[in-house]
Amino acid sequence: MPSLLLAQPHKTVKKRSMHLFEQFEVLADNDTVRDGAYQKRSIKERKLFEEGQYKANKRVGVWTFYSASEQPELVYDYDTRQVKSSSRGSSASSVAQVQEGDSVVAMVLDDGPVYLASSAQVYGIIARTVRLPASLQRNGVNFVSFKVMATVSANGTRYRVISSNQDKELLKSCREAVDLAFKDVDWVPARYRDQPVTATYLFEDVTLQGYIRPR
């Protein structure tokens, strides 16, 4: 006689942090195993950042990452490890560092590095976390800007802050904001001649403005 395959029971978990709201399914008898639908949203506005499916704690199938207007900006297939579509602008540039003989040269990439997260999530967390130090404002500095540069390789990603002001307190705040914004964010390395290569990804400017009331 044919046997019946019964689906494993699941339960829904809702997880909140300072900036994010996550809703996902786990096994009913083991809530450490994500298995099923997943969504991530902003904590206040509940704007959708990303959605997809887990299987035994692994991301599977097609995932969609959304812009600030909740339109798909990146669609990625975790099974084939391919970007299916992307609407991210060209202002976020990428530069390859490819070894050619004894020197490192800039080359045109087959595919640039891609971060698997919503841009609205990344920029939103940075904007809400970084602070313009009061000491700078008291000295008349009420406007600064900085960029984030990610160096992406097959072995991992390193982040660097490039700031218009080298104040130590400011740089510390920027780095803390970047660490929080890119926590648990995966990258797809750049490819050149069908091989993963190290490349840099430069994000758009983040501006900080402050104002100290006169006494």
Question: What distinguishing features does this structure have?
Answer:
215 residues, mainly beta, 7-stranded antiparallel beta sheet, 5-stranded antiparallel beta sheet, 3 helices, 14% helix
Walk me through what this model shows.
The protein has 215 residues and is mainly beta. It is 14% helix and 47% strand. The protein has a seven-stranded antiparallel β-sheet with strand order 1-2-3-4-5-6-7, covered by helices on one side. Strands 8, 12, 13, 17 and 18 form a five-stranded antiparallel β-sheet that branches. A hairpin with a 2-residue loop joins strand 4 and strand 5 (58-66). Helix 1 (119-129) packs antiparallel against helix 3 (168-181). The longest helix is centred in the C-terminal third of the chain and has 14 residues, at 168-181. It is globular and about 65 Å long.
Give a brief rundown of this model:
This protein is mainly beta and 215 residues long.
Number of helices: 3
Return the string of H and E elements.
EEEEEEEEEEEHHEEHEEEEE
| Major sheet strand order | 1-2-3-4-5-6-7
Shape: globular
* Poorly predicted runs of 5 or more residues: none
- Strand-residue proportion: over 45%
Mind summarizing the main beta sheet? 7 strands, antiparallel
Itemize the secondary structure elements and their pairings.
Layout (H helix, E strand, L loop, with lengths): L9 E7 L3 E8 L2 E13 L5 E8 L2 E9 L5 E6 L4 E5 L7 E3 L1 E3 L2 E3 L8 E2 L3 H11 L4 H5 L4 E11 L2 E8 L4 H14 L5 E2 L1 E3 L2 E3 L1 E4 L3 E4 L6
Antiparallel strand pairs: 1-2, 2-3, 3-4, 4-5, 5-6, 6-7, 8-17, 9-10, 11-14, 12-13, 12-17, 12-18, 15-16
